[in-house]
Amino acid sequence: MRKQYDTIGARYAESKTTAAFSAADTFTLLGALDALGGVDGLDTLDLACGYGYNTRLLARGGARRTVGIDISEQMIALARAEVEEPTAPGAAAAAAPIEYVVGDAAGMPQLGPFDLATAVHLFNYAPDRAALHAMFRSIRVNLRPGGRLLAIVPNPGAFPHQDWSPYGVRILDRDPTGDAPLLRAQFLTDPPVPFEFREWAHADFAEAAVEAGFATVAWQPARTPPPDAHRDEEFWAAYRSRPISSLMTCAA
User: How far apart are alpha carbons 136 and 211 in whole angstroms?
Assistant: First the structure.
């Protein structure tokens, strides 16, 4: 399940830049980073980095070191192919080079220590409880004391009670077997791309974080970007009433 992005490839990049849920996720993450005072001078780790969208946000924010890790070789290849625009004369110094690593978050090597880790839609790909707990342990040992984990995680209970199609994702089926139900879904690109993930409860994430040694776990609702010509306030109000994801914040 966690290597399905080898076949999704560039289609995920399309979804990331066009889907409403991705816009909300990015706005939520940026707000959390601002609340922490930004990333200037920090050592940062972006887990499940995909093609490097959020990794580049960290680097452009002034991180001293930025590492992106993803289990998909294809996604890391796409990330490495992305080249930042040259810095214009008189502009601020260019972001430090990003290090990209192919690796499994459940068995991550010692890459740090880091001050901050981000994980956008990582934990929902844990196939079982053992892998979920291993992910949190790997992250914790890569963080300095006092380091932070900011994770965007899906909200449970979507299917069949909520239609996420207007926001870029369609849930097709829910298989209740396993440590957490398996959801079969589509990214609504053109054509749609199938993928699947586990519907973990937020309590499962919190349990794994505490077991891994995180001192605090907190939750915040999704935030949405300002309305524009494509998505007005009515659209975003409907999203906020049943959002796809929430922000989980853990302190080491």
Answer: 8
First-to-last C-alpha distance (Å) of the chain: 29
Nearest C-alpha neighbor of 102 from the set 79, 133, 118, 83:
79
CATH number of the structural domain 5-251:
3.40.50.150
- CA distance linking residue 199 with residue 106, whole number of Å: 18
- 9: tokens are 């490839």
CA dihedral sign of residues 149, 169, 228, 243: negative
H helices of the chain, in order, are 5-8, 10-18, 20-35, 53-60, 73-81, 129-141, 202-212, 233-241
Distances (CA, A) of 243 to 70, 163, 193, 222: 25, 10, 21, 7
Print pLDDT tens along the chain (252 aa): 556 665 555 545 555 567 999 999 999 999 999 999 999 999 999 999 999 999 999 999 999 999 999 999 999 999 999 865 444 444 445 578 999 999 999 999 999 999 999 999 999 999 999 999 999 999 999 999 999 999 999 999 888 888 999 999 999 999 999 999 999 999 999 899 999 999 999 999 999 999 999 999 999 999 999 999 999 999 999 999 999 999 999 999
What's the whole-model pTM score?
A: 0.91
Contacts 24+ apart (CB under 8 A), 194-199: 195/4, 195/5, 195/8, 196/1, 196/4, 197/1, 197/121, 197/124, 197/125, 197/154, 198/1, 198/124, 198/125, 198/126, 198/127, 199/124, 199/154, 199/156, 199/157, 199/158, 199/174
How many angstroms separate the CA atoms of 197 and 180, rounded? 9
